[in-house]
Write a structure and sequence with these properties.
alpha/beta; binds uridine-5'-diphosphate; seven-stranded parallel beta sheet; single chain; 10 helices
Length: 325
């Protein structure tokens, strides 16, 4: 019988794409989501509407569904908002995850894949970022994810939880068939904002800082296609279901791309340049972040298939031209 997975946060961007890839790999999936930022149309399988802090609701869904594993994508994830309203981040991301773990334990579900972030590392003291890099997050968002990672490691050691944590770099792109992609009510990410600016749907992009000590003065990030990210989740889950206790892995391509290089790729994809104005640096943006990703390659036999920024951006453009939601 195929394994059953509850995808918590399954109506969101990365959760819904991963759920679709789980289905392609023979898993049975259901989604749990409060729809605060997600889209009901994106959820795969049955959608249970609920908050991760709602112990009764979560317990009922987990015990009724006879799940073998949980994937946990539900979180607040806007760095700026986390600086302005830190308590929301500790409440939902840390408190909500503690509730989820308790409900899993109460219902006998002992396998979890958790969405973490490279923001737990803070300002890099060495690049590429490896998993042993010191963790000094510079925002409550990053701090909340670091706290959860610590909680999960303790539960792995003492509570019998099998858990793998995936530290995402910059997710981008859509399902190649155009069925699922990135639509946020509050959009802060470079690629969707730049495409919308070029399509005339938004004002010109504000380019945050051109005076960084990088090859063209703009920030360097590691853009990873959402399908490669989803594939990492499936591989991580399979390893846990085979009895592995789990670990923490970076999920990036290892390739750094500057903001100007992203804008140029979008310009090539659309055949029109991205209108933009140079703005001040955004608080909390490190000059460069890119992954050392050999740990996941060795442990899970995962390698990114989408290694060109043009190919990644092309699928983001495809979604922006005809979003389904
Ligand atoms: N960025 C920008 N203008 C925007 C949004 C982002 O110049 O309107 C830059 C940002 O400073 C960073 C990069 O684009 O260097 C990626 O930012 P994003 O918010 O997409 O992801 P982050 O790296 O913050 O998770």
């Amino acid at each position: 019988m195929s394994a059953r997975v509850l995808v918590v946060g399954g109506a969101g961007y990365i959760g819904s794409v991963t759920a679709a890839v789980l289905v392609q790999n023979g898993f049975e999936v259901e989604a749990y989501d409060d729809l605060s930022t997600g889209h009901a149309e994106a959820a795969q399988g049955r959608l249970h509407r609920g908050d991760i802090r709602d112990k009764d609701r979560l317990t009922a869904v987990l015990s009724d569904g006879k799940f073998d594993a949980v994937m946990h994508f539900a979180a607040k994830s806007l760095v700026g908002e986390s600086v302005a309203h830190p308590l929301r981040y500790y409440d939902v991301n840390v408190g909500g995850t503690a509730t989820l773990l308790q409900c899993m334990q109460d219902t006998g579900v002992d396998t979890l894949v958790f969405s973490s972030t490279c923001a737990i590392y803070g300002d890099p003291i060495r690049l590429p970022l490896d998993e042993e890099h010191p963790q000094h997050p510079v925002s409550p968002y990053g701090a909340s994810k670091k706290m959860v990672e610590e909680m999960l490691a303790a539960c792995r050691a003492k509570e019998g939880l099998k858990v793998t944590t995936l530290r995402y770099f910059n997710a981008a792109g859509c399902m190649p068939d155009g069925s699922l992609g990135e639509s946020h009510k509050t959009e802060t990410h470079l690629i969707p904002l730049a495409i919308a600016a070029a399509l005339g749907q938004r004002p010109p992009l504000s380019l945050f800082g051109t005076d960084y000590d990088t090859r063209d003065g703009t920030c360097i990030r590691d853009y990873i296609h959402v399908l490669d990210l989803a594939d990492a989740h499936v591989k991580a889950l399979n390893q846990l279901l085979e009895g592995d206790p789990g670990d923490a892995y970076n999920v990036g391509t290892g390739v750094g791309t500057t903001v100007k290089e992203v804008l140029a790729a979008i310009g090539r994809s659309l055949g029109t340049p991205v209108p933009h104005d140079v703005a001040e640096r955004r608080a909390g943006d490190p000059p460069a972040l890119f992954a050392r990703a050999d740990k996941i390659q060795a442990a899970l036999n995962w390698t990114p298939e989408w290694t060109s920024i043009d190919a990644i951006v092309d699928t983001a453009v495809q979604w922006a031209r005809s979003p389904r939601f």
